[in-house]
What does this fold into?
Amino acid sequence: MGFAEILGGLRERAERLLTEPSPLSAVLGRLEESTGVRRKILALGAVSLTGLYLVYGYGASLLCNLIGFVYPAYYSVKAIESENKEDDTKWLTYWVVYGVFSLGEFFSDIFLYWFPFYYAFKCLFLLWCMAPVAWNGSQVIYNRVVRPLFLRHEAAVDSMMNDLSGKAMSAAEAMTREVLCTLVKNQSLLTPPSAQMGRDPQKSLPSPADPQPDPRTDTPPERPPFLG
It folds into this structure.
């Protein structure tokens, strides 16, 4: 495939993206009706302004991360809701590569931050990873870097994850037992002894074996005679 054919395919896909039903095409359509400027020119101007802002603007990191997140997240949701599973694999591959890239960027950002036009190149890299072509960046990086490393260390990673999950469950059970023991001890300390012992039922309730006085047969005690 020649370079001209690649550019032609990209142009067709860009035109399809601008015309097919989507929030982007709806916004461009309303702008085209209100301004009278064709949507291709509007899209080209928006891309140019975005590139200039990534080079000279404040908050270029946030804008770059939004570009690498919003569009893939939208089409990932559409892929989940569709019956076709090929697009699911495509966007899962993108998110795996995006996660690996974000992890590497976290440790090297202190050095890459001073690189000229870093966020512009990062945005181009993310656009290459999400490009609707067979040779996009996510497919290339996954097949050539991520997948060989994963297959080589899959058994070791699975063993480590099983050990970590077992240790996490044991630690959670031990912590739960310790918390329950502490609550029981605190409850016993806060409860007064009288409430713990309770009332003696033999002292508080009469025994059925004890004889009960009969008011009909028992006579009241005699009063002493009045001496006066």
